């Protein structure tokens, strides 16, 4: 079975879908692994290491795609690349399926078995394949590091002969995977950290990291069966905004990570709340890819408000730590392949009854097969 790993668009994506370590693991399974020269250039993995791991450089992209039984990527494929894939090929990548119905139709028409990493179930069995978590964890870390670099202040308390420097205050909104890592990172750097989430179960996790949990009475919030947050109604959002205004005004850094699975992110930090913040403070909106939590946050651009608050607008913050983001993303893919590998037949066994496959396989045999995205009869 031939596995090809194309290069990503270098202007948009520094991560890669293969490391030398996962190349070695896939070769050991029995896969014939091909990679685009320069694949790991932006994430610090040289071609020579892929070759030493047993992978073969494939300089002819079109020929490599057309010959592949399995394709691994980070980003969704371009339409012209889908047209080159052979029927029955398996394609693993992020696909942004809630916003890309035309792409899914193209993958189905090409008879490709397309797997969406966003849709891998968040279960214990699939934990090793959970790319949303592996990337969100690094994004939470990077958010604190990038905000700190822009702050013009330090985070820890310092008692010096020249006087005492008070610790910075960090407020984290949304304490899922990214938020909890942001809390832990800010604590390690010595900040005084406060956090809020609408899922009540999170309070203990926040406190166990040594942070304070901000109490806001929103009435019934709960969470979905899959562990995701429920959307709030307009009155609950207004109560949340009132409850967070003081925490924002006191904070040197605000990091927002509040997302709703498959839906636009809630708008939580208003222009009025920004106007009440101190000049020089920094806001990082980690929900910017799905619409943003912060009024005025702009993808790809840093915005400074009239009162001197910087809103960092960088998308895909995990790309700023591309070496490790690639390490764990490639490991997620290798875990997926290993789970479905038939060692005797040296091929993938995509059993349609497998619970993980049911969650993340979107197209197969010419149709969109996932119930969430299949055209309604
Ligand atoms: P996410 O990215 O969908 O959302 C981030 C956080 O924002 C969540 O904690 C959510 O509750 C919060 N949020 C939503 N609306 C908000 C609002 N109005 N105000 C404040 N916060 C708000 O979440 P995630 O990090 O992907 O995690 C989702 C769930 O999946 C969690 O329950 C997590 O524990 C669970 N999970 C389970 C596994 C596993 O069991 N293998 C792995 C990873 C995550």
Provide structural commentary:
Strand 4 (70-72), helix 4 (79-84) and strand 5 form a beta-alpha-beta unit. The radius of gyration is 22 Å and the shape is globular. It contains 12 helices and 19 strands. The two termini are 36 Å apart. The strands form 4 sheets. An 8-stranded mixed sheet has the order 3-2-1-4-5-6-18-19, sandwiched between helices. A 7-stranded mixed sheet has the order 11-10-9-12-13-15-14, sandwiched between helices. The chain has a two-stranded antiparallel ribbon with strand order 7-8. Helix 6 packs antiparallel against helix 11 (322-340). It is of the alpha/beta class and 377 residues long. The chain folds into 2 domains: 2-119 and 321-366, Rossmann fold (3-Layer(aba) Sandwich); 139-315, Rossmann fold. The structure holds nicotinamide-adenine-dinucleotide (NAD). Nicotinamide-adenine-dinucleotide binds at residues 122-124, 127, 130, 132-133, 136, 173-179, 196-199, 202, 227-229, 232, 240, 257-261, 266, 268.
Key structural traits:
377 residues, alpha/beta, Rossmann fold, 2 domains, eight-stranded mixed β-sheet, seven-stranded mixed β-sheet, 19 strands, globular, binds nicotinamide-adenine-dinucleotide
């Amino acid at each position: 079975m031939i596995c090809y790993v194309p290069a990503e668009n270098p202007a948009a994506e520094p991560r890669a879908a293969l490391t030398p370590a996962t190349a070695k693991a896939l070769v050991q399974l029995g896969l014939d692994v091909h990679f685009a020269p320069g694949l790991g250039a932006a994430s610090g993995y040289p071609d020579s290491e892929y070759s030493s791991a047993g992978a073969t450089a494939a300089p002819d992209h079109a020929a490599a795609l057309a010959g592949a039984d399995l394709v691994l990527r980070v980003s969704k494929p371009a339409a012209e690349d889908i047209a080159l894939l052979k029927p029955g090929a398996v394609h693993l990548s992020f696909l942004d399926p809630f916003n890309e119905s035309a792409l899914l139709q193209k993958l189905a028409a090409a008879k490709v078995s397309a797997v969406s990493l966003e849709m891998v179930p968040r279960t214990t069995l699939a934990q090793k394949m959970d790319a949303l978590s592996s990337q969100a964890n690094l994004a939470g870390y990077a958010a604190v590091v990038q905000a700190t670099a822009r702050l013009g202040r330090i985070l820890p308390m310092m008692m010096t002969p020249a006087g005492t420097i008070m610790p910075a205050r960090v407020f984290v909104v949304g304490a899922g995977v990214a938020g909890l890592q942001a809390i832990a990172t800010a604590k390690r750097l010595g900040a005084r950290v406060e956090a809020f989430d609408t899922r009540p179960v999170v309070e203990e996790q926040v406190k166990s990291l040594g942070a304070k949990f901000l109490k806001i009475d929103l009435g019934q919030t709960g969470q979905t069966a899959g562990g995701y947050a429920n959307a709030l109604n307009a009155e609950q959002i207004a109560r949340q905004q009132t409850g967070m205004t003081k925490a924002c005004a006191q904070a040197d850094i605000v990091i927002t990570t509040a997302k709703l699975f498959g839906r636009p992110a809630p708008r939580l930090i208003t222009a009025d709340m920004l106007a009440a913040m101190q000049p020089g403070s920094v806001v990082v909106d980690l929900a910017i890819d799905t619409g943003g939590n912060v009024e005025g946050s702009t993808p790809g651009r840093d915005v400074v408000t009239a009162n001197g608050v910087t809103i960092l607008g960088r998308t895909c913050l995990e790309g700023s730590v591309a070496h490790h983001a690639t390490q764990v993303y490639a490991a997620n893919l290798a875990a997926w392949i290993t789970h479905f590998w038939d060692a005797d037949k040296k091929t993938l066994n995509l059993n349609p009854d497998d619970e993980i496959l049911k969650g993340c396989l979107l197209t197969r045999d010419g149709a969109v097969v996932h119930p969430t995205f299949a055209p309604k009869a």
